[in-house]
Amino acid sequence: MISDIIKTRRSVYPDQYIPKPIPREILLEVLEAANWAPTHRKTEPWRFKVLQGESQHRLGQFLKEKYLQTEQRPKNIKIRKLEKNPTKAGAIIAICMQRDPEERIPEWEEIAATAMAVQNMWLTSHSLGIGAYWSSPGLIRYMDEFFEMAEGERCLGFFYMGYYDGALTPRERGAVSEKISWV
What we know:
There is one protein chain. The protein is α+β, with helices and mostly antiparallel strands. The protein has a single domain (2-179), classed as NADH Oxidase (3-Layer(aba) Sandwich). 38% of the residues lie in helices and 17% in strands. It has helices at 2-8, 24-34, 54-70, 76-88, 107-127; strands at residues 46-51, 91-98, 130-135, 153-163. Strands 1-2-4-3 form a four-stranded antiparallel sheet.
């Protein structure tokens, strides 16, 4: 049932992944789910760039080098994570948003639609036994130096994906009744 998938979904981080690539047909299934997200004015602003294998290594190198160029006091642990985390994933999907050239709707609505597409990806991944994590480091503002991007397109983060062993820790949430005002 969908409510069970929603309630049991968790962030699963690169350190938890086992070394197993994600087949293309599974990635296409996840991306097809993304394509059915709600979208105002049918702008369908989500764009995705899939990285596997060597491109993951190149991403890690790029992030490490860009961090070293832009950070006044780089931290060794962050340098290692930026370089190594991309290589731990079974796949990475760069989450991009293409702004409507006519700007018929506010930009926040296109960002929200893209986030809903990512939620569809996350729920589909979880239902398939694949862990995922949406990373949005400050370095995403430089991704036009790594990817070819269309005018008006921008990167909103990386959707790390990977198979994992073991059970996920149950999540706790406050009561929804504490978040509702009946008017």
